[in-house]
Design brief:
Layout lengths: L10 H11 L6 E5 L6 H12 L3 E3 H9 L3 H8 L1 H16 L6 E3 L8 H9 L2 E7 L2 H7 L13 H19 L2 E4 L5 H9 L1
Parallel strand pairs: 1-3, 1-4, 2-3, 4-5
Helix pairs in contact: 2-9, 3-5, 4-5, 5-6, 7-8
Bound molecules: shikimate-3-phosphate (S3P).
Shikimate-3-phosphate (S3P) binds next to loops.
Length: about 190
């Protein structure tokens, strides 16, 4: 697998896909992508720029359960976490006000979530980063228990499994590698 570039991505493709996505109007802006792609950072900034509420699915789960993502994984297992993740995503997509939603990396795993993203009045932007960049960025600390062992290997494997799923739900693809936060934000807002 190539790790230096995102398979299938070219600047002209990004531009074409962004043009197809058109203007946001009253739709939600949903950011999807792997852990470490920058969904929370870019999402918060995009929400400020658009004057919208920012919903971060992991933060909502933690606020609501009073437990960290790590504690939920440890006490109840991944399946229980995925159920909470789905509930929070569906609820966020149902918000009457258009929001910016940072959807946790695993939301694309469930078919029901992908269908909800397809159905919702939302533009879905995939923040697409290569596994090598993600490995540089993420640590196993905090809310990413899946990276406790062999983060590089886990991210490579996740990329193989999830890349077609992110592609399936995306209205636009924004490549993150080699770009500043400012540049990624402008591409998302365009
Ligand atoms: C996960 C991503 C994490 C968090 C959990 C599982 C995943 O969120 O929900 O550790 O399976 O990709 P971020 O994408 O915000 O890091």
């Amino acid at each position: 697998m190539r790790t230096g570039t995102v398979p299938g991505w070219t600047p002209s493709r990004e531009h074409a896909v962004i043009q197809r996505a058109g203007s946001l109007g009253s739709q939600h802006l949903v950011l999807v992508g792997m852990m470490g792609a920058g969904k929370s950072t870019i999402g918060r900034l995009a929400a400020e720029r658009l004057g919208r509420a920012f919903l971060d699915s992991d933060a909502i789960i933690e606020g609501r359960t009073g437990r960290t993502v790590r504690e939920i994984f440890a006490a109840e297992g991944e399946a229980a976490f995925r159920a909470l993740e789905s509930a929070v995503l569906l609820e966020a997509l149902d918000s009457p006000q258009p929001c910016v939603i940072a959807a946790a990396g695993g939301v694309v795993l469930r078919e029901e979530n992908r269908a909800a993203l397809e159905r919702a009045s939302a533009r879905v932007v995939w923040l697409c980063a290569t596994p090598s960049l993600l490995t540089e960025r993420v640590t196993s600390a905090g809310h990413r228990p899946l990276l406790d062992q062999d983060p590089s290997g886990v991210l490579q494997q996740m990329w193989i499994e999830r890349e077609p799923l992110y592609r399936e739900v995306a209205d636009a693809i924004v490549s993150v590698d080699g770009r500043s936060v400012h540049d990624v934000l402008e591409a998302v807002l365009r």
